Every structure is written in structure tokens, then in C-alpha cells.
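re the bet — no i am not wrong, look at it urself. input seq straight from the record:
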Amino acid sequence: MAENLLIEGWEDDEYKAFVEKFKAKKTTDDCYTPPNVYDAVADWAAAEYHANKARFVRPFYPCGDYEHFDYPEGCAVVDNPPFSILSKIIAFYARRDIPFFLFAPALTLFSSSSSSSSSATCIPCGVSITYENGAQVPTSFVTNMDDRSIRVRTAPALYKAVKAADDRNRKDKSKSLPKYEYPDHIITAAMVQRWCKYGVNYQLSVDDSLPISALDEQRGRGLSIFGNGFILSSRAAAERAAAERAAAERAAAEKWKLSDRELDIVRYIDKRISD
């Protein structure tokens, strides 16, 4: 009886807050990749890099130890690692020259991979994947299987494959994140994700860029570039502007347009208001 009264009588905000403390929290380190999403990524990586999918290994599993994992000769790591230690993981594989293609946090992709920026290529896809634990995480990728001179690139086919797989799993649509304007000499992961979405092919070389965490103007206001970015050469800035224009044109092409009849209606309304 006392137990029933306790349960029935404490259904207030204080009790709910007490119970909430013991619920498991959803974090990027606890994400379990849906099989069809992983297959979409692995199939793309195998085709793109002419790799044998049967040689892909996945050292990141509950209670696994990637540092003491038995990496067979000729293998490649294609897996979803804990995002909180991604920089450490990239550095580990870079030192041992182990090929990898890793899931990575979309908005902090550049900062997460900065420790090995000269040996890893960022692929900002920004697909919001619904993981097995229910967490929806904007996800991109980082790899050392590309040409080592490429620092950032798009992969429109990868974006489409992962999004198609996730769409089959998803029940709820995620909310859009706010967008910010930067000069042509600055590139962020969010920008490249958008170009990837609209099928724009783009590459940024190591020689044409340097890491940047904030513009001087931002520092004066206590702000920074979320997830860091890169400052570009004049040549790369022109290529960045061209990629942005191409994405804008393709985005505009997807919008509904008024017919000639509907434009006549608009002109009629305008004339009626002015008379």
C-alpha cells in the first residue's frame, strides 16, 4: 500500500526530475549504426576506392579496444567510432598507416580531424542519421583512403546512398539548423555538406588552405566558427564561390515556379491594389 501511495503521490515535477536522473542518456558514443546505413557507406567506400568489402573490419563495438584489435594485413577500418575521441583515433591509424573510412560528427568535422589534417580527407555529407538508440546525429566522414593532397571533398553519391538508407529507417524529420554567412575565403563543414546535397563536385587541397577557429571580427565579440573551418587562398576562394553558386542554382531549380497564368493573376492583384 505504502509503495502504491508513493508511486501515485509523487507524480509531480520533483519526482519526474528524480526519475530522469536515472534514465540512460543518448550520446554519439552510444550510437549503434543501422545495418542498412552501414552497408550503404561500406558499398560506396568499396566502389570508390576499389577496395574489397570483405576486408573491412569494425573494431568499434561495446567493450571493444581498437588499440589492441587484431588488424589483418590488407584490411581497412570502415566503422562508426566514438566521436568524443575521434582525433585520437585518427592519429592512431595515421601513425600505423592503417586505411580507414570513419563516421564523424558533421558540424565539428574539421576540428575533430584537425590533429591529422595533412593525412586525412574530410567528406562533409551532413546526413542526419537515426541511429539504433534513437539519437539523430548529423554525420559526415573522414578517411585516409583518398589522395593525401585532398583535404576536403564532396561525395554526392555517398550522400544520396546514406540518406536513402536513413529515410527508410526514419519516422520523424529532424529540424533544420541555422545557417551563417561567411566571406568567400572561409569554408566550413556545413557549407560543403550543402554542396554535397546538391550534387556539386568540389575538392580543397592542403596547399590552398589553413585551419581557422574564428575570424578576428568574431573574437572581438566572443564568437567563433562552430566546428572550426579553413581560410582559403584566393584561387580556392574563387572555387568556393563557384561551388556556392552552383548549389544555389540547383536549389533554386527545385523550387516550384509560377505559371504564366498565375503570373497574370499576380499582375491583376497588383493592378487592383494600385487602382
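see?? The chain is about 40% helix and 15% strand. told u. also The beta strands are 56-57, 76-79, 100-105, 121-130, 136-143, 150-153, 186-188, 203-205, 209-212, 229-232. so pay up
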